[in-house]
Amino acid sequence: MPVSLDLPSRLLSSDLCQLLEAYLEPEQVKAVYRAYLFSAEAHDGQQRLSGEPYIFHPLAVAYILGQMRMDSQTLCAALLHDVIEDTGIAKKQLINEFGEKIAELVDGVSKLSSIQFETREQAQAASFQKMLLAMNQDIRVIIIKLADRLHNMYTLGVMKPTSRRRIAHETLEIYAPIASRLGMNAVRLKLEELSFAILYPFRYQVLKDRLQKARNKRLDILRSIQSTFEQHLHKHHLNAQVVNREKHYYGLYYKMLEYKSATSLDKRKSFARATNMCAFRIIVDTVDACYRALGVVHSLYKPLCERFRDYIAIPKINGYQSLHTILFSPHGFLIEVQIRTADMHELSEIGITAYGFYQLDQPSVGLPKPTSQLAHQRATEWLQSLIEMSKNAGDSVEFFNQVKMDLFPDEVYVFTPKGKILQLPKGATAIDFAYAIHSDVGNRCIAAKIDNQYVSLSVPLVSGQTVEVITTPWARPHRSWLNFAVSARARSHIRHFLKVLEHDEAISLGKRLLDKELASYALSIDHLTAEQQSQLLKNLKVDSLDKLLAEIGLGNRMALVVASQLNLTLESSFKTPSPINGNQYRPLIIRGGAGILVTLSRCCRPIPGDEIVGFMSAGRGLIIHQVICKHVAEYQYHYPDKILSVEWESNLEEDEFLVDIHVDVLDKKGVLATVSAAIANMGSNIKYVANETDEGVSSLLKFCISVRSRDHLAAIIRHLRRLEVVNRIQRSKN
């Protein structure tokens, strides 16, 4: 049966007790009433913005949860959920009065009010992270929070317009998707409708009026279709309940926006298309009856094959199960039909709250139904993914943004080579698939096969495809993967890996830079005693040597300044160590282009054989330029202390470097293929090509190619000059 989440016009504690007596034991009802009395006393004298006593809010939250038939512990926590945050009562007192379980639930819902944050976003993100991590211990935390948010949405009218819009937007962005992820469809729909009415009141009212008019026009036709379904289902001995369900305003509005953006329809046409459909739900007794009922409706009206979805065989990510089909009607509109069992329908309405696991203190509860077990399993998997995201995120704001991205998962269903089905967000690529299998598979991924054909890692996946990931031990994630990785899990692991790698490379680069500067004082970081290191860190106010070296490597501290400080520290406190061997002014060695914090500039693209210079960029590390690059003169004038002497490592023949060349050619058929083939024959790979054609007989081909050295580039240029179609060729310097 559908769950009603409406509230009485004047809610009293007796209304709550009457609701609870229908499914809880008398002792449990008494415990809930005791929590009500405690909360009423704690909030005595407090009022909401509406002017009503504050206790009406926790009472309403408990009533909403009672409509979901939640257990007594959850109801007690709902009544007490603002006690820690808004009164002087401590968590320890709640433990003494109501036990640790209820106190933990209340604490999980409470905001982080004792910590000061610079921005509202940081405070919101930190409280959200605290709540979601508490959710991992007990998922009832988020169920209470959703009921809390729902009642707040009911009573937003007394707030300022800016506050109303902010809270409504936050509800649509976070809380409604969380309710959807937990299968709590009734809560989601209420949150969406209330938010839509607040954010776009005029659109909401116009859509409501027009939808009601359209529905009234079709009323007789809808009754006829419903009667036809009922008669034929009964004829095939199927015990079925047929319901003509109304489309929800926000869902309809969202579809109108999709149609408009996808097809450039105007508002009137997008409304007509979105409403050119009526919806029915058929509820039967068994899974077998679902498929039999599907056969019946398909025999009555022609199905739209590409819109059929079997969510019974392949449930949605929140455990939702149903058969969805679209039928052509003889009346000029489409018929959307959902077919499910009663258990599936209950799960679709209240989701995770249908699981008897929460009624731990109710002895009459037996084993949970299979559909509820599936919902609980999916919710548990999601919670585990949140823990992984939290560990990999740099701070609460980053975690908050990753969770928001993970809450909009229009699914794609793909297969592993062994036939296992994986659910991924819409637009997911092979990278998302690899990380869905395991983080190690994602970190070592180098290629992918889709339906036994090699494809780029950035190709979006389509439902029904079989995906195979190719890995190697030496592979590692690349920063460019963040441009096409869609799932929060993949993006979280990629960011975490790059962050660790960047930190390690920053320490390594920082040590090389500091040793280079210390050489002028006949010092080396490796020759310092623990006492000398400690004194240096104390003077510089840094926690550890690794942190100091990382800051130097990232360009946030100048190695020259640190070396000078160290020399002064040693002169004042210690004996200067013996000079070390080696050239004090030897340039820093550049070992190829690989690395996060040693970057070859894209403006001049230096390659081995070019005379080069380094520039320390704050936060980015060491940027390598050609000496003749136009930017170097600017850096030498404005930032002379950030210019470093560098040189290439002697043996870099195994590495490849990118370089730009401009080839002026005759504008003839097949000229691009001729030049490209010549470049490939010289052992070079083309990364990018562009063509500029003037009104004359020539064209300018701009290539970005890979070379091993300056000599390799010279050989390629000589080879291209021999081609008849080539007029001129030169390397692009900037």
Automatic annotation (TrEMBL):
Gene Ontology terms: cellular component: plasma membrane
One GO biological process term: response to starvation
Pathway assigned in UniProt: Purine metabolism; ppGpp biosynthesis; ppGpp from GDP: step 1/1
Keyword NAD: no
One Pfam family per UniProt: RelA_SpoT
Catalysed reaction equations from the record: guanosine 3',5'-bis(diphosphate) + H2O = GDP + diphosphate + H(+)
Record-annotated ACT domain positions: 660-734
Annotated keywords: Hydrolase
GO molecular function: GTP diphosphokinase activity; guanosine-3',5'-bis(diphosphate) 3'-diphosphatase activity
Boundaries of every HD domain copy: 54-153
Residue ranges of domain TGS in the record: 410-471
EC id: 3.1.7.2
Similarity section: Belongs to the relA/spoT family.
PANTHER family: BIFUNCTIONAL (P)PPGPP SYNTHASE_HYDROLASE SPOT, GUANOSINE-3',5'-BIS DIPHOSPHATE 3'-PYROPHOSPHOHYDROLASE
Job of this protein: In eubacteria ppGpp (guanosine 3'-diphosphate 5'-diphosphate) is a mediator of the stringent response that coordinates a variety of cellular activities in response to changes in nutritional abundance.
Name of the protein this chain belongs to: guanosine-3',5'-bis(diphosphate) 3'-diphosphatase
Species in which this protein is naturally found: Thioploca ingrica
